[in-house]
Structure formats: C-alpha cells, structure tokens
Write a structure and sequence with these properties.
By secondary structure, this protein is of the alpha/beta class. It has one domain (2-157): Rossmann fold (3-Layer(aba) Sandwich), CATH 3.40.50.20. Helices cover 31% and strands 23% of the residues. It is globular, with a radius of gyration of 15 Å.
Length: 160
C-alpha cells in the first residue's frame, strides 16, 4: 500500500513512520520541503485543502492518505466519499464521529499512540488491549493518542 502522510516535516510525523514498515510511505508538507525525501504540497490554502490533496494523491497514485495537520482534519473527513470514489482511503474517522476524537486538552509529549486502518492496528508506541478491542469494534481509521490506563473515551486524533 502506498500511503501519503502530511506534516512530514514534523517530528510527530516521523515518530509514527515506524508503523509503516510494510508499506511505501510518501512524506509531504506545505511550503518548502527537503526535495530529496519529501513531496511539496505547495503553499497552504485552507480553502482548497481537500482538492489539493486529492490532486497530489492522484498524481502519486497513492492508496491512502493520513492527514496530520489540524487544519486538514475536517475538510478531509468531509471529502472521504470523494476520495473513496478514486479508491483512496482517508485515514480518519467518519465526519459524524470526528468530534468525539478531536483534541479537547493538550497531551503530554510521552502520550502513547496507535495507528488503525479499518479497525486493525498497524502500529503503536505501545499496545493497549482495551483500545485494540475498541478500535476493531469501531472500525477506527487514523492515528490516535491516549494516556496509558485511561478510558478509550479519552482517545484523541494525533495531529500537529
């Protein structure tokens, strides 16, 4: 699977990169990026985020996109159906469930994270049995952060 990860210039994006050992990953970000290993998404224009990302995905023939910038989350959740028409999976919860997982409070740097694709754990900083079960049941998509030992109701999207 070829996966495009936005926010590629951030340490947080690089932190989750290890979860994709079995996949081809393309790191992308807005503005100037190191040309040797990143794809530029051009200048940030929040009015055309989904359209720009769809064009990039089509140009690069990606199978899935993992948006990490906080300003991409809502537009991309709204555009999931459009991306699916082009066989590109948006690794985010559905729009209806999005508010459940959006950041309410800040997490510490040591927060744990788990990456789900269609409810299956693809990678994690640590495996949490309750979260694994919940993710499978809810068919989660995306990277979620959590504090070890807390309820799955405290699960939040991993954004930058």
């Amino acid at each position: 699977m070829k996966i495009l990860i936005t926010g590629g210039n951030s340490a947080k994006a690089l932190k989750i990169l290890k979860a994709f050992t079995q996949h081809q990953v393309i790191l992308a970000d807005y503005g100037e990026v190191p040309s040797f290993s990143f794809v530029s998404l051009g200048e940030k224009n929040e009015d055309t985020i989904a359209h720009s990302l769809l064009n990039t995905c089509l140009d690069l023939a990606v199978d899935a996109i993992l948006p990490l910038h906080h300003f991409e989350i809502e537009p991309m959740a709204k555009a999931k159906v459009l991306f699916n028409e082009f066989n590109i999976e948006v690794l985010l919860p559905n729009l209806e469930a999005l508010s459940t997982y959006q950041e309410i409070h800040s997490f510490a740097k040591q927060d744990e994270w788990m990456l789900f694709i269609a409810g299956e754990v693809l990678g994690a900083s640590t495996i949490d049995a309750d979260l694994t079960f919940f993710g499978k049941k809810a068919q989660l998509n995306g990277v979620f952060k959590f504090n070890q030992g807390e309820s799955v109701t405290n699960l939040r999207l991993f954004t930058i």
